[in-house]
Design a protein that fits this description.
This protein is an alpha+beta fold. Helices cover 37% and strands 22% of the residues. The protein contains 9 helices and 13 strands. The chain binds aspartic acid.
Length: 325
């Protein structure tokens, strides 16, 4: 076979293989009735502040950029916004008044990076990406993560805004420092995107539970808990009481449910249901899950009413209410 005819043979074989894998994805990989045309590009993220974050991600996606770059750029908007009280700058501190950050990122190859209990760095998501791209490891924590960030060009920033400090002092007065479990604040940003090439990536970043015990790390930097991406199936991210998400490996569970036929919506509901089944729904905690599948279907669910998520695609942006499971 000449080189030219061999190339042609390979090209046809690859088109055939692509058709087979798309057909099997529609038939059994993602469940329900996926749209004939995949919806992409697409970006979704948790909470109202996801609208601004999606916009930054969308600029890259619309220009043909990669999902990985889009999710990093998107959540950086929330990290830098002092009005977002549970992410990056302006995030609520721990019980001792220190802002400690958790973040992770995962790409279409299943590669991932994370940082936890990181202080003084405005963009933990970018440090997480650097852990993924520059080290053989998945996660760095605490002073080791800070040293790594500083050695790689990140600068120290004071993340405790005057407003966050005043609120923390009020909390100290109100609880006389007795309350040791932190206070609910559900503003973690989790973001998932599909780019024009059909590749998926996700990012998740947070300052965690307000006034948490010093050293507490939640679900957000844990791959399979706060975030999971499988390029053949879909992706999911979480917000809310991290301990419940960690105990059920919520986002891994959602992606596995989608792999076995559930739609994103059903998978999110069943992952919320798992928390109930185990008897961990104390009626007070909130958990919100958001998922997309490979064909661009979006689903969400939560333990309680009030979880909102933002969706951006070629038809515009939307802020939607998730249905409690
Ligand atoms: N999931 C985050 C944590 O537990 C907080 C949140 O999203 O409310 O650290």
């Amino acid at each position: 076979m000449s080189i030219e005819s061999r190339r042609e043979f390979l090209r046809k074989t690859m088109i055939g293989a692509g058709a087979v894998s798309l057909a099997s994805l529609a038939g059994s990989g993602c469940g329900g009735d996926p749209p004939a045309e995949a919806r992409r590009p697409l970006v979704v993220s948790t909470w109202r502040h996801g609208l601004a974050a999606n916009e930054a991600a969308w600029e890259l996606l619309e220009a043909g950029g990669r999902a990985l770059d889009a999710v990093e750029a998107g959540v950086r908007v929330s990290e830098a916004d002092p009005e977002v009280r549970s992410v990056g700058l302006g995030g609520a501190p721990d019980g001792e008044g220190h802002v400690t950050l958790d973040a992770c990122i995962m790409d279409q190859r299943g590669e991932c990076g994370a940082v936890a209990f990181l202080e003084h760095i405005l963009h933990p998501i970018s440090v997480a990406r650097m852990v993924m791209e520059k080290t053989p490891h998945v996660m760095l924590v605490g002073s080791g993560a800070l040293d790594f960030a500083l050695a790689n060009g990140f600068e120290k920033t004071n993340l405790l805004t005057a407003e966050a400090e005043a609120k923390w002092r009020q909390w100290l007065l109100a609880t006389s420092g007795r309350e040791k479990t932190g206070a609910a604040n559900h503003d973690t940003i989790g973001m998932l995107a599909i780019d024009e090439q059909g590749d998926l990536s996700g990012a998740c970043t947070t300052s965690g539970l307000a006034y948490k015990l010093r050293g507490r790390v939640g679900d957000s930097p844990i791959i399979g808990a706060g975030l999971y991406v499988d390029n053949a199936v879909g992706a999911a991210c979480a917000t809310g009481r991290g301990e419940l998400v960690m105990k059920t490996l919520g986002t891994f569970l959602i992606v596995e449910l989608m792999r076995h036929g559930a739609s994103p919506d059903e998978a999110c509901r069943r992952a919320i249901g798992r928390i109930d089944e185990r008897g961990w729904n104390d009626g007070d905690a909130q958990v919100g899950y958001l998922a997309i599948d490979k064909s661009g279907r979006v689903g969400a669910s939560s333990l309680r009413p009030g979880f909102q998520y933002a969706v951006r695609d070629g038809s515009g942006d939307n802020l939607l209410d998730a249905q409690p499971a």
